[in-house]
Specification:
Endonuclease III, domain 1; Endonuclease Iii, domain 2; single chain; 13 helices; 205 residues; 2 domains
Length: 205
């Protein structure tokens, strides 16, 4: 695999590369629903997310709902599947934003990573990390570095023996190191998560 050979040029990272991980970086359909799934998964275990998401789809006869259907769903019904009040609002925010801005798979695939982050972080409840995960695991972008991800930071601090007390200098070092992984920074993050056994929750629509 080309990305493996490229990342192995980083000798410290190479020690933790023991096979391919590209099967996780594939574009998926219905990106707006993927984003809603990401909102649901925040701060929850994979097991809990699976249960909530199945309940969510059951509200729509196990078919992927359209944004208008989600907007029309009573808040009580969404709270009934296990979502907090805040997440109910965030889910509806995403659905309304996607309708208002005519967000489609085609539109997002035509945009740059930076433009997608700028666009989607306008939604209340959607932060940069959430969009970075969407770029990686729903849009299949190969060159995304999530500098604020706990698992990525922890793994890199351990691998490169970095000083974590000075956050500014640490961020500069992380960006410099990850810059050498480009154009395959997403895969670099995956290997970091493998090292920490701390892969993020990825919900598939």
């Amino acid at each position: 695999m080309e990305y493996i050979e490229h990342l192995k040029k980083d000798k410290k990272l190479a020690a933790f590369i023991n096979g391919p991980v590209h099967e996780r970086i594939q574009p998926h359909k219905n990106i707006p629903l993927q984003l809603i799934g990401s909102i649901m998964s925040q701060q929850l275990s994979t097991k809990v997310v699976d249960v909530i998401y199945k309940r969510f789809l059951a509200l729509y006869n196990n078919k992927p709902p359209k944004p208008q259907q989600i907007i029309d769903t009573p808040g009580e019904a969404l709270r009934g599947i296990g979502l907090s009040n805040a997440k109910v609002n965030y889910v509806k925010n995403v659905a309304a934003f996607c309708m208002e801005h005519k967000i489609t798979d085609k539109k997002l695939h035509a945009m740059s990573n930076e433009d997608i982050i700028t666009l989607l972080t306008q939604i209340k409840g959607v932060g940069k990390w959430t969009v970075e995960m969407l770029l990686m695991f729903a849009l299949g972008r190969e060159d995304v570095f999530s500098i604020d991800d706990y698992g990525v930071r922890s793994a890199m601090i351990k691998m490169y023996k970095l000083d974590k007390l000075d956050k500014k200098k640490l961020n500069e070092r992380l960006l410099k190191i990850s810059g050498k992984w480009s154009p395959y920074r997403t895969y670099g993050c995956l290997y970091c998560w493998h090292l920490k056994d701390n892969a993020p929750v990825v919900e598939k629509a």
